[in-house]
Design a protein that fits this description.
This protein is globular. The chain is of the alpha/beta class. It has two domains: 192 residues, Quinone Oxidoreductase, Chain A, domain 1 (Alpha-Beta Complex), CATH 3.90.180; 137 residues, NAD(P)-binding Rossmann-like Domain (Rossmann fold). The protein has eleven helices and 19 strands. The strands form three sheets. Strands 4, 6, 7, 10, 11, 18 and 19 form a seven-stranded mixed sheet that branches. Helix 4 runs parallel beside helix 5 and helix 7 packs parallel to helix 8. The protein binds zinc ion (ZN) (2 copies). One zinc ion (ZN) binds next to helix 2. The site of one zinc ion has 8 residues, from helix 2.
Length: 360
């Protein structure tokens, strides 16, 4: 089958023919229908995440089950599925505590040690148990969830990572009450999903902040009540003005130190800053501990939308089909696998919302 392989950091992915094994016990073979291209794929290519080459990237997929291994009872050939990097073991304290996205055994290699993917006789890495930049995926069953057949598979793929990360930050990580004021910093795929989560919970003012004002048309369509152009004046002062002293919730969806600091300063008394964007591990941020105490502000991280994806993703699919979650607007282009490198370039330049690879 054809796959996009990372042979070395900072090099274009190479489109190769590689071999995929038959399912072992507990595994599912999926024909990939679509795969979103996520910023984490780019982080891997740039050496920012500890994933060694050679490796097939891609971790935001949808597809159709082709075969199942021994003992698999939750899936059957023909099922429509979404894949998620938050595979869960089901028995560790985080899984049992209802926070499977923090599972300590997320990467589920085969018990017999054989590779799922090969090139010639050599094992080939599989990113996040998924490796969705390929015509087929061989996954542990606990990396997959079954969805309704009437959900379009290209839009379903977005739910696999970016939409779940943003939507879940608003719906799971914190408790937004109807009427609360919410600020979203960064109107990329994750930020726009967090913005929609705020709208779905019934937030009052929903303020989109971005330095690229062309994104405000789509932000307004998805539920923003106000937009702040961070390239024109002080965005903290603008948010303070719009909210009468700071918002109840501020979501940082970019992952830069300056915007993290702005997020804390945009948060009002008693409010919560939610850090969704991944700041590079070497960086630190400054903020005043006294403000946190005297104004009882909270800062929390949000990882993968605090997901329990087998519960959340079918619900997000319902939201889409009910007309409450907009996904069509979030797809900037649909491309074949052979154009993956151009798509990564577009992402480097910040020119695309969400690009989706479509397989035949
Ligand atoms: Zn991702
Ligand atoms: Zn676990």
């Amino acid at each position: 089958m054809k796959a996009a392989v990372m042979r070395a950091y900072n090099e274009p992915l190479s489109i190769e023919d590689i071999a995929i094994d038959d399912p072992n016990p507990g595994e599912v073979l999926v024909k990939t229908a679509a795969s979103g291209i996520c910023h984490s794929d780019l982080h891997v290519v740039e050496g920012g995440l500890p994933v060694p080459p050679p490796c097939v990237l891609g971790h935001e997929p949808s597809g159709i089950v082709e075969a199942v291994g021994e003992g698999v009872t939750d899936f059957a050939p023909g099922d429509h599925v979404i894949g998620c990097l938050s595979a869960f073991c089901g028995t560790c304290k985080f899984c049992l505590h209802g926070r499977p996205y923090l599972c300590m055994s997320q990467f589920l290699p085969r018990l017999d040690g054989t590779p799922r993917l090969k090139t010639g006789d050599d094992p080939m890495g599989q990113f996040a148990n998924l490796a969705s930049f390929a015509e087929k995926m061989l996954c542990p069953e606990r990396a997959l969830v079954k969805i309704r057949d009437d959900m379009p598979l290209d839009r379903a793929s977005l739910i696999g990572c970016g939409v779940t990360t943003g939507l879940g930050a608003a719906l799971n990580t914190v408790d937004i009450k109807a009427g609360d004021s919410v600020v979203i910093i960064g109107c990329g795929g994750v930020g726009l999903a967090a913005l929609q989560g705020a709208r779905i919970t019934g937030a009052g003012k929903i303020i989109a902040v971005d330095a690229q004002p062309w994104k405000f048309d789509i932000a307004r369509k998805l539920g923003a009540t106000d937009c702040v152009d961070a390239s024109d004046g002080d965005p903290v002062a603008a948010v303070q003005e719009l909210t009468g002293g700071g918002a109840e919730f501020v979501f940082e969806c970019i992952g830069l130190v300056p915007t993290v600091q702005q997020a804390v300063n945009m948060t009002g008394r008693g409010g919560t800053t939610v850090l969704v964007g991944v700041v590079p591990v070497q960086k630190t941020a400054d903020f005043s501990p006294a403000d946190l105490v005297l104004q009882e502000k909270k800062i929390t991280g949000s990882f993968m939308g605090s997901n329990r994806f087998r519960f959340d993703m079918p619900k997000y699919v319902d939201f889409y089909l009910d007309g409450r979650l907009f996904l069509d607007e979030m797809i900037s282009s649909r491309i074949p696998l052979t154009e993956v490198n151009e798509a990564l370039d577009q992402m480097r330049k910040g020119q695309a919302a969400r690009q989706v690879i479509i397989f035949d």
